[in-house]
């Protein structure tokens, strides 16, 4: 067992380093004046917009939007530059450090970054609901059997990390289960080698462990939320970029709506497009069985599930990630999205009291 933890120690140290960088960047942002709200003036369309996302099925709208040219088709002369991440901590760090403008990211890192930085990012749309599971070795069939075991999550404080630690707390397993923070591909390899006993993972990684590595589902996170809905992926923007380039943000949002609408009308083609996009980014293609299983667990939706965020913020406290639940007033800015929806005669989305005013 000692060798297992020696192999996992570098990843754990890396996660702590990223958390420190995130806090440092948030302080730097406050010092340079990117403090959210409407402090900037409209400068028209940006020359370039830098967009971040993951090579995951749970980031399907981003992958479809990029690969089918739906963002570039709406951006016109604005250059689209993309960057992919394996961790919400990494992407939040890039946003707060000013090297990204807009990102598809998990709700957990979005909340943490908003709270630490004094509101320098805003959620401007939903993207994906669902698509996260706790998958474990097949001989583990009850929560109690996880005592002394090691379970992986993508990064400390990310959406799945908070979900796992909250669930452990509710099952009186806090400090009785070892939580390892590993990039998803590392978790897959570690599970097959026996270095970890399971993982609370987003799609397609939970499906990869089940289909390709023999894992079994212990908890489907859908079972823990009303109507099975929880925001796995949302779209966030740096507040200063939104204030200075609202037309560019609107174009990216329109591309997101286009991608979700197209995927809803062409589900089989959308799954293939996402698989092709993942292959371009990772040089590895998902099997049809993994792809089908992963897509069956997610819902592509622009609705950010606004009413869940107060609970998600409190979950970070229960999980021991933060000491007190952050205030989330101003966390959501759905004005631009609702303008787009109104133009299409679609109902507006409610910010559940977490908007700007």
UniProtKB/TrEMBL annotation:
Alphabetic keyword roster: Cell inner membrane, Cell membrane, Membrane, Signal, Transport
UniProt entry tagged with the keyword Protein biosynthesis: no
Ranges in a coiled coil: none
Signal sequence bounds: 1-28
Domain of life: Bacteria
Locations listed in the record: Cell inner membrane; Periplasm
Family: Belongs to the bacterial solute-binding protein SsuA/TauA family.
Descriptive protein name: ABC transporter substrate-binding protein
């Amino acid at each position: 067992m000692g060798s297992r933890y020696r192999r996992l120690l570098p990843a754990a140290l890396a996660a702590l380093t990223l958390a420190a960088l995130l806090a440092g960047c948030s302080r730097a942002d406050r010092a340079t004046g990117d403090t959210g709200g409407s402090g900037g003036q409209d400068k028209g369309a940006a020359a370039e917009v830098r967009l971040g996302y993951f090579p995951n099925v749970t980031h399907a709208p981003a992958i479809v939007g990029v690969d089918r040219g739906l963002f570039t088709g709406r951006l016109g002369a604005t250059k689209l530059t993309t960057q992919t991440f394996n961790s919400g901590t990494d992407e939040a760090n890039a946003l707060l450090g000013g090297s990204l403008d807009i990102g598809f990211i998990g709700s957990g890192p979005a909340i943490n970054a908003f709270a630490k930085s004094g509101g320098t990012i805003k959620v401007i749309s939903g993207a994906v609901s669902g698509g996260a599971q706790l998958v474990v070795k097949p001989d583990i069939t009850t929560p109690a059997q996880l005592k002394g075991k090691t379970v992986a999550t993508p990064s400390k404080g990310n959406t799945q990390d908070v979900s796992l630690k909250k669930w452990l707390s509710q099952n009186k397993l806090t400090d009785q289960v070892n939580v390892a923070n590993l990039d998803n591909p590392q978790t897959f390899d570690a599970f097959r080698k026996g270095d970890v006993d399971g993982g609370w993972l987003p799609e397609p990684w939970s499906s990869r462990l089940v289909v390709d590595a023999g894992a079994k589902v212990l908890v489907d996170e859908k079972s823990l939320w009303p109507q099975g809905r929880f925001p796995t992926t949302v779209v966030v923007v740096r507040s200063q970029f939104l204030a200075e380039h609202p037309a560019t943000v609107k174009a990216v949002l329109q591309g997101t709506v286009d991608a979700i609408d197209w995927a809803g009308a062409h589900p089989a083609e959308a799954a293939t497009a996402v698989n092709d996009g993942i292959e371009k980014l990772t040089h590895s293609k998902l099997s049809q069985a993994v792809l089908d299983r992963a897509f069956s667990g997610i819902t592509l939706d622009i609705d950010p599930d606004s009413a869940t965020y107060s609970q998600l913020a409190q979950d970070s406290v229960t999980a021991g990630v933060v000491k007190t639940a952050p205030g989330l007033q101003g966390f959501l800015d759905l004005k631009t999205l609702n303008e787009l929806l109104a133009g299409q005669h679609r109902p507006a989305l409610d910010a559940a009291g977490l908007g700007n005013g």
